[in-house]
Amino acid sequence: MRMAMDSVSAVTEPVHVTKTRNAYDTVADSYAEMLKDALAASPWDRAMLGTFVELVGASGPVGDLGCGPGRLTGYLASLGLDVFGVDLSPGMVDAARRAHPRLRFEVGSLEALALDDSCLAGALAWYSLIHTPPEHLPTVVAELARVLVPGGRLLTAFQVGDESGQISHGYGHEISLDAYRLQPDAVADMCTTAGLEVEARLIREPQPPLEKSPQAYLLARKPS
């Protein structure tokens, strides 16, 4: 398996990629601290992740793609998966390595993963699609499909809606970050176009005070 490199390519990259990296580098430590116990308060998250773990099992490695500080990478590892993390932000990867020194974390972009074709039994994209402009999102979904083995699963989570906006303050810092809410049908269509079969989707109501919109989970499988 080719792993992502820690160095960021010097070639010109899309503006949204640079903005996302810079924002998450800025908030990495405070983000990790504020969300470290968030999973304990979300039975829906745990239910979907548990289903993903049961379906993937011991069939091969799993990538937590857009892993942030590794909180879900560690959780999946605790449930028995062979899992590693990839994130665009070097600051987030540093935080993940400190929190989970026995797990593997690398810097990389979801738009061009440094992974071989058909190398993952599972791919988790947990709120890691929401900073990609809609016109670029099919490329990301196709990249996630590319790295899955036949029979492999993709689980993604995102906020539901059609709105987009710029985040100027987050986790105690001034930042500049674009965010996009997504429609489950649109994400499902992208999965289908990328050659995946949608197995399940769940939409739940927001949990105040942090969530302002419904939240969606979508599970897809690469045909055998």
Write down the CATH class. Answer: Alpha Beta
The biggest sheet amounts to:
7 strands, mixed
The main sheet orders its strands as 3-2-1-4-5-9-8
Count, helices: 6
Beta-strand proportion: 25-35%
The CATH superfamily is identified as Vaccinia Virus protein VP39
Protein name: Methyltransferase family protein
Domain Methyltransferase: 64-152
Keywords: Methyltransferase, Transferase
GO molecular function: methyltransferase activity
Structure, briefly:
Keywords: Methyltransferase, Transferase. By secondary structure, this protein is of the alpha/beta class.
Key structural traits:
alpha/beta; Rossmann fold; two-stranded antiparallel sheet; 33% helix; disordered N terminus; methyltransferase
